[in-house]
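seq as requested:
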Amino acid sequence: MNKKQKSRLIIFMLVILVASNYSPFRSWKWYYYSSADGNFTFGEFPEKGLNLKIMEREWAQYRLEQRPADSSIYRSFAINPLKFWLWKDYLFMTATSIRTKFGQIAY
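struct tokens:
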């Protein structure tokens, strides 16, 4: 591999890296959540105004009306390790650490 080919390869890799990080689709985040039995589902689309606070409100309403045995919501979207800019969204914290950091979440 000569010097010209190496420089082309490096430029190509940089273009791919920049394009993947500054794509207009990069900011579109779709997250899906569900109860264990699948009776409650929610799609979080921040760009459309469907955010986590709306899901919490709907989940509280569902829990009051349906009284499910399992009161947990589960992430039902796949983690894509190649999208390194979303790694911060994939971190898992236990309920205790969430309460310690953010306080009690009211439902």
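The chain has a mean pLDDT of 77.
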